[in-house]
Design brief:
Distance between the termini: 49 Å
Enzyme class: ligase
Strand order of the largest sheet: 3-2-1-4-5
Helix content: 25-40%
Shape: globular
Oligomer: single chain
Family: Belongs to the QueC family.
Catalytic activity: 7-carboxy-7-carbaguanine + NH4(+) + 2 ATP = 7-cyano-7-carbaguanine + 2 AMP + 2 diphosphate + 2 H(+)
Radius of gyration: 17 Å
Pathway: Purine metabolism; 7-cyano-7-deazaguanine biosynthesis
InterPro entries: QueC, Rossmann-like_a/b/a_fold
Number of strands: 5
Order of helices and strands: HEHEHEHHHEHHEHH
Structural class: alpha/beta
Number of helices: 10
Largest sheet: 5 strands, parallel
C-alpha cells in the first residue's frame, strides 16, 4: 500500500442498497474518504437489496472491501413486518400508514437493528483504521423509529469511545449521519448533484424485482423524487 493510501482518511458505510445509504456512500466519497461498505443479510423480506448493495459497491470501485454479514437470528426473532411473514407490510392503499398516530412505532421497525449494525460496523472500522461510520438514518421521514434519532446516535458514539481500543487511546470513531434532518427531496437533490447511482438502488419493503409503489418506503421515495423535480429511475408496479 502506498504512503498516500495509508494517509487517506477512511470510513465504513452501512450500505443497504437503498436510496439513503447509497447517498451516504456518495457523500462520504465527496468528503474524501476511502470507502469500506458493509451490508447486512438479516433475513429481511426485501433481501433483493443485498444485490443492489453489491452493484453500488461495484459502481464505486470497492467491491473487494464490501462485507456482507449474515444476521439470520433477526428473522428467527421476527417481530417486524420486514422479518416476519406473519406481519404484513402496511401500504398507503390500506390507509394504515396515513391513519397511524404520529407517536406510533411502525411495524416495519426491526428491534435492535441499527444498534446491531453500528456495533458490527464499529468492529470493521477498528480493523480497517476507519475514523468514521456513515449511516443513512433519517429522523424526519422515519420519526417513529427509535434507533434513527440523534439521541440514539450520540449515545452509541459515547459507547464506542468507551468500548474500543481507538476510543480509549483518544482517537475515536465518529458516526456520521448527514441525512438525519434532510427531507427526502433534499436527499435526492444532493445525491443527483454528486452523481449517486439511484438506478442501482431499491427502497421497496416487499422485495420484488419491481418496486410496489404503495408501501411507505416507496411512497416516501416517489414523493422525494417528485418534490426534487426529478423522475425516479427504477421500475414500479404501481
Amino acid at each position: 500500500m502506498s504512503a498516500s493510501n495509508e494517509n487517506k482518511k477512511r470510513a465504513v458505510i452501512i450500505l443497504s442498497g437503498g436510496l439513503d445509504s447509497t447517498t451516504c456512500m456518495g457523500l462520504a466519497k465527496e468528503a474524501g474518504y476511502e470507502l469500506f461498505p458493509i451490508s447486512f443479510d438479516y433475513g429481511q423480506r426485501h433481501k433483493i437489496e443485498i444485490e443492489n448493495a453489491k452493484q453500488v459497491a461495484e459502481h464505486y470501485g470497492v467491491s473487494g472491501r464490501h462485507k456482507i454479514i449474515k444476521l439470520d437470528f433477526l428473522r428467527d426473532f421476527g417481530g417486524s413486518a420486514l422479518t416476519d411473514d406473519n406481519i404484513d407490510v402496511p401500504n398507503v392503499v390500506d390507509g394504515l400508514t396515513e391513519g397511524s398516530e404520529e407517536s406510533e412505532i411502525p411495524v416495519t421497525y426491526v428491534p435492535g437493528r441499527n444498534l446491531l449494525f453500528l456495533s458490527i460496523a464499529t468492529s470493521y472500522a477498528e480493523v480497517t483504521g476507519s475514523e468514521a461510520i456513515y449511516i443513512g438514518v433519517n429522523a424526519l421521514d422515519y420519526s417513529g423509529y427509535p434507533d434513527c434519532r440523534p439521541e440514539f446516535i450520540h449515545k452509541v458514539e459515547e459507547v464506542i469511545a468507551l468500548a474500543t481500543k481507538v476510543g480509549v487511546e483518544g482517537k475515536g470513531i465518529t458516526i456520521e449521519t448527514p441525512l438525519i434532518d434532510w427531507t427526502k427531496a433534499r436527499i435526492v437533490q444532493e445525491g443527483l448533484k454528486i452523481g449517486v447511482p439511484y438506478e442501482l438502488t431499491t427502497s421497496c419493503y416487499n422485495g420484488k424485482a419491481e418496486a410496489c409503489g404503495v408501501c411507505d418506503s416507496c411512497r416516501l421515495r416517489l414523493k422525494g423524487f417528485e418534490e426534487a423535480g426529478s423522475k425516479d429511475p427504477i421500475a414500479y408496479l404501481a
